Amino acid sequence: MKQHLVALLRQLPINFLAITGLLIFGTLCGRQSSAFFPAGIKTGEVLARTVVLSEAGNPIFVVFDKEGKIAEEIGEAAGDLEGAFMLSVGSYNAYVDQMNEYLSDKDGIGKGSYLMTRDDYLSAEFKTLDQQHVLQKPNLRPDTTAVVVRGQETLLSKDDNPLLMEAPINLFDASLQSEELRSMLINKEGETVKVTALNIGYKAEYYKDPDNRKDPLGPVPGIVIQGGFYALGGEPGDVTNNEGRYTFGYVMPPCPGFTFEYTTNIYAKLYYKNFHPRGAKFGTYHMMRQGWDFCDGLADVAPGLTLGGLMAQVNAIAMRAARAVPVARNTFSIDVYMVTGQAVVANPDGQSIEMTDKTEYGYEQPDFATIIHNYDENGDGTPDVGYDFDGDGKQEKIVLGNLVWNEEKQRDDFVTAGDGQYQGIYLSSGSRSPEAEDPELKQPDFTRLRDRQADFTHQGLLKTISKEDLKKTDLYIFRESNGQLITERRGMKTEELFNDGDVDEEKKKIYYRVMIRGAMDAGNPLRGNFTDWQAKAKMNPELYQRKADHLRPGENLRIILINRKPVTSVA
Questions:
Q1: Is 465 within 8 Å of 565 (Cβ atoms)?
Q2: What is the 8-class DSSP label of residue 210?
Q3: Which of 121, 167, 270, 318 has fewest C-beta within 10 Å?
Q4: Could you give the number of structural domains in the chain?
Q5: φ and ψ at residue 14, rounded to 5 degrees
């Protein structure tokens, strides 16, 4: 073979041999870093969607359509819109319904109730009907603008609460909204600024110039980016800088004489706070961007040492040199929310619930002892508010007794008795008295059934609960801006599509974690088909598709936990 090759070279001209030698030398030496050992580069950024601020640094209210696109810009949260907030029409109507129920009440706790502004309530003093006691009024929430308070005729006890309801809306001008509407913008005075059948929220973007993808708003530093492939020298990677950018190069194995496509996927590792009694303090979530690198080694080896083979290699070199290989920018747009938290099981009085092997409910026999409402002359010697039926500011005299049939006068007469079932009421403005000598004047002005000690203690509250029964707690996540149910979880289940829950017996707490994915996370191949994932995660069907009004930064969520354990025993 060597003899044939030497014979062939002897027959070739000197200038052709020189050119051929240069080509072979360039192929084996000069192209090693870029072709014989193909090199690649990965660059990009990790960004979080961020609330867009105006030049004055204020968020901007906008209306979003059903696909999550901006349909209308309302204005920045300044001036008349400073302190404004989003509220669902359902919540607004609930306030109005509750107000109307109290104001129309003729016999119950709402009898005589009326509206007050926040300032009027804070400066007002509430007293019992007899003006003997000043009532302690509850503090108001910071966003309350109007309240409904009880009528004075229902304030009989010094422990009565004068506040019936409080609301962040102007109840004086409030009226029920159409069920076709969903979202409202309310200013800090409680007045309605905007109401729509769509959704109102803060403007949020990844870039200041979203059309041209320029000027990132929410770069995320410190994120580990790893290549999911092994290049020469090991697994490549980088950590994002303060601008959220990463860049790393790598060299792949050669493909001399043939072509090959390498899969060069890269991964971003995100962290989130994890409230789990036995798990790690921080959880991780991975995102992937798919990539491929093409190795063209056809120009690295001549198909033969004939003139045709060498010229074919020259053409292959020229074609590879002329080929433009752009460096793609791989951007990780974070659009996933981990709703994690903990809840404590307690009764209305704040007392925590013990966790045992059995769930029990508490009950104590109430004390229904007789009570006499004479001012400063209660049955047990303690002061009492008494009664003032004639409204002259003086307490009536009350005596226990029974009704006995008077055959002569064909009527029931009141006869004093310490264990009587009735009260004889002697009005302070009248002339009747239990000490009167005249039998007619000794009869009370009227009678009523005797009063018994009121029992306002809670009955049937949870006393103990088992771990298994506590796990039967459902979780619901609602959107405050339009009342939309985002997702629900039936029971505290463990490790189910990043949605789980658990119980810590020692700390008597419930832990939950729910992942909510947005449209941009639909491109994450690690989660599979977006629609299928949303359905399995029990998301609202309105959010199954990528083109939907998904959650955005700055939104408020309402989380409700309901334990479905039925009453099985009372202790």
A1: yes
A2: T
A3: 318
A4: 4
A5: -65, -45
In the chain, the largest separation of any two C-alpha atoms, in whole Å, equals: 158
Q: Residue 551 corresponds to which tokens in the numbers above?
A: 């959650």
Average pLDDT over residues 484-500: 74
- b/e 66-79 (16+ beta carbons within 10 angstroms → b): eebeeeeebbbbee
pLDDT tens by residue, 149-186: 999 999 988 889 999 999 999 999 999 999 999 999 99
Q: Is 439 helix (H, G, I), strand (E, B) or coil?
A: helix
As a whole number of angstroms, the distance between CA 393 and CA 387 comes to 10
CA dihedral 486, 490, 492, 493 (to 10 degrees): -100
Residue-wise DSSP of 33-70: IIIIS-EEEEEEEEEE-EE-B-TTS-BEEEEE-TTS-E
Inside any domain, residue 55: no
248-295: pLDDT as tens digits: 988 888 888 788 888 899 999 998 877 666 666 778 889 999 988 888
* Same-domain check for residues 348 and 329: no
220: amino acid identity, one letter: V
First to last CA, the chain: 102
Alpha carbons 540 and 337: distance in angstroms, whole number: 15
Contact 567, 463 (CB under 8 A): no
400 bridge partner residues: 423
Identity of the amino acid at 40? G
273: Cβ contacts below 8 Å, ≥ 6 apart? 281, 282, 283, 338, 340
Q: Roughly what angle, to the nearest 10 degrees, separates helices 307-322 and 14-25?
A: 40
Q: In what order do the strands lie in the sheet with 422-426?
A: 411-416, 397-406, 422-426, 446-449
- Residue 157 has a pLDDT of 83
State the residue for tokens 């008077």. 406
Query: Which residues pair with residue 503 across a beta bridge?
Result: 510
Which of residues 422, 452, 482 is at a domain's end? 452
Residue 498 belongs to some domain of the structure: yes
- As given in the structure block, the two tokens for residue 324 are 């433009």
**Which residue type is seen at 319?**
M
On whether both 470 and 407 belong to a single domain, the answer is: no
Nearest CA to 99 among 149, 145, 35, 155? 149
Phi first, then psi, for residue 381 (nearest 5°) are: 85, 0
Question: Taking the model in full, what pTM does it have?
Answer: 0.75
State the average pLDDT over residues 324-342. 84
Tell me which DSSP letter residue 457 carries: -
The C-alpha angle with vertex 121 and arms to 116 and 124, in degrees rounded to 5, equals 120
User: Phi and psi for 411 in degrees, rounded to 5?
Assistant: -155, 170
For residue 497, pLDDT beyond 80: no
Parallel/antiparallel/unpaired status of strands 39-48 and 329-334: parallel
- The string of pLDDT tens digits covering residues 11-69 is 444 333 333 333 333 333 333 334 567 788 899 999 999 999 999 999 999 999 999 99
For residue 174, give its domain range: 60-202
**Residues 134, 216 within the same domain:** no
Distance between CA atoms of residues 314 and 266, nearest Å: 35
Q: Measure the CA–CA gap between 447 and 454, rounded to whole angstroms.
A: 20
Ordered alpha helix ranges (H), 497-570:
530-536
List 249's β-bridge partners, or say none: 41
